[in-house]
Amino acid sequence: MFEYTKTVLNKVSFDATLFCKELEKALQRLLPYEIEELKIFINSLIKQNPDLNQCLIYLKA
Q1: How many domains does the chain have?
Q2: What is the pLDDT along the chain (61 residues), one digit of tens a residue?
């Protein structure tokens, strides 16, 4: 499920709103240790696309 989530987030990274929605879904279905890995993955995506920075609020909760 984690690899699938990474693929989806990568594909929607062009649109911050869509990315945030998919991130919310991912946080509901992933296990806690997968969420930690996801945070690392998202930070690397944000370096490539700074517009996604607004979605970090979902990871703080």
Answers
A1: 1
A2: 999 999 999 999 999 999 999 999 999 999 999 999 999 999 999 999 999 999 989 888 5
DSSP summary character for residue 31: -
Identity (one letter) of the amino acid at 39? K
Query: pTM of the full predicted structure?
Result: 0.87
Element (H, E) at 6: helix 2-11
Alpha-carbon span 41 to 33, nearest angstrom: 13
Residue pair 12/19 in contact (Cβ under 8 Å)? The answer is yes
Quote the domain boundaries for residue 51.
2-60
